[in-house]
């Protein structure tokens, strides 16, 4: 009985020590995680950087501007489902990737140029 109580107390101690990460939001442009307050600062800067990088690409690699995914509030108070918002943002960020004409792997357009310099077609068997 005493052993069971000690085990329960120890388990409670371990659970109390678990540190919860603050909630994060995924950027729909770059796919990185940011805090819920810093995402509003990051997104305009990320979009500006995206435009600068996109304008430097050749015409065939240029992409349309990414659109912020729309997620409907799930509660009457207007709160958003953070998981659904992050899922939509992740999909949007992944849609920015461009496939390699040779191997089919996907890259950001500026990285695709570097990749294609070393990508070789698979030998026919």
Automatic annotation (TrEMBL):
Keywords: Metal-binding, Repeat, Signal, Zinc, Zinc-finger. Residues 23-52, 96-125 form the C2HC/C3H-type domain. The keyword Electron transport does not apply. It comes from the Eukaryota. Residues 1-16 form the signal peptide. The keyword Signal applies. InterPro entries: ZC2HC1A/B-like, Znf_C2HC_C3H. GO terms for molecular function: zinc ion binding. This is Zinc finger protein 475. It comes from Anser brachyrhynchus. The gene is ZNF475.
